[in-house]
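Per reviewer request, we include the raw input and output of the structure prediction for the construct analysed in the revised manuscript.
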Amino acid sequence: MSTTKPSLALYGGQPAILDSFPARKAFGESEEKAVLDVLDFYRDKGEDPCYRGPFEQQLCSSFSDYMGGGYTVAVATGTASVYVALAALELPKGSEVIISPVTDAGPLSAIIMQQMVPVVADSEPNSFNTSWHQIEKKITDKTSCIMLVHCAGLPTDVDVIAREAKKRGIKVLEDCAQAPGASLHGELVGSYGDIMATSTMYRKNIAAPGSGGLIFCKDEALYHNVLAHSDRGKPLWSQDYIERDPSQHLFPALNWNTNDFSCAVALSSLKRLPHTIAKRNAFMEAIQARLNAESQVCRIAPWQGTPSVFYIQVLVDVEKIGQRKHEYCQALIAEGVPMNPHYKFLISDWEWSHEYFKTPTETPNATSARDRSFNLYVNENYDESHVSAIVTAILKVDQYFTTLTS
């Protein structure tokens, strides 16, 4: 490698990447046809589009089949999927729910708003994912549930977590918002725990317009509880249920219904999910191979099983760049690398939430992993040319910063 320092774009030089990266464009011809099919269906019926319609039922049936059999309920948002799944478990008020350290505010809010006590478990070193090793430290006689996030589309050691939780009578809610279709030991994530929640928000691997969510479980009684909690306490499975008779409702609950347009588009996206996963995973593997062989500074965060990549966490050897990660990432952005330089979805950073915890919220492993990494954006349209472009930019910035510290 040349010892001459390259002229970084951050300081006025020519960017390494001159062409823009392809947009995902998840809403294409098949999604357009799906929307038109819904319009045609209701036009032919002479009715207005409803909720719990045939396209919603088709999505739920297809997702259950995809998961290997069970029951699925569609709701309006990903947050709603977690909220309803948690409510359906009927956990004791005041009990403790262990949550992953890197998550969205929605799942944490679901715990708090249902009058349970959140307890945050740390991640494994160099990872955003927690593990049984970390979770076990947080279990008390008040623990009722583990809300387990598969961050970035990477499976946790959910097989061990689910097995050990079951021994202790603790429920497992798998939050698969970033990981639908990921698998461990040949089994899909979401199928290990008692119940699964996932998102079909427009940026997710299964994408619907705006927001959407799915709840999956294998137990019929739990499924009935999900149905009731998703729509105002209605016993929708009962043959005697009358839609316009609230006296039959079982308990207070909110209306989380979605619609046929969202579900029809999500179904189109679900049909394409294996392709989406294959393309994203291939991109991550190609980046990993190149960085391992060529970069002095960057490595892909460790993973197991078969991911369903949502973003790629890239670990930075900060000692080799003089502890200047922020400047290093700004240099990569200036070179044209699509990324988030500092992920802010760590519970330990959210001061507003800390009053709801009865135990410390510090998660040093997760914080360290975040402070020594950036998240590389990816979609299924990225190919080998984009691998080369990103690696070229990284090597250019590597050379500049490692020369400074040599």
